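=== RUN LOG ===
request id: a7f3
mode: sequence -> structure
chains: 1
length: 153
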Amino acid sequence: MLRRDALRLLSLSCLPLLSGVASAKDELRIEVWKSPSCGCCKDWVTHLQANGFEVVLYDTGNNSVRSQVGMPQKYGSCHTGIIQGYVIEGHVPADDIRKLLALKPNALGLSVPGMPVGSPGMDGPQYQGRQDPFDVLLIVDEEHSVFSSYHKD
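=== RESULT ===
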């Protein structure tokens, strides 16, 4: 079984079964595992919600689920999401998640490793407008390619 198929099964098993045809809102439902005390995770969730995503939160930390879904630790961050069978690791912008869902590549998912200042959730007033360059990575097994880049000109 492909890792992505296993993720779909995990994702479906965590949600109640719905009857009828999935709505556009259902397609934007993302499950997120984070620490209950992490402010930047909460800010990233707010970013997703402001961009039309329905977020199901698990305040249990993300290390266990990251390992279970096969996201390599080198791409790790402070929260992990699953949407339509894809893993979303870290401060990935909502537009990149939408792009991933539209393209439907054969991949594990997207990652913004670490916690770059200026990424969604790491862009609050305490950072005084600072914007560090960062890449959104498309993860395929243990490898990656750059999916989107956010660099000042």
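=== NOTES ===
The longest strand covers residues 143-150.
The first helix runs from residue 3 to 14.
=== END ===
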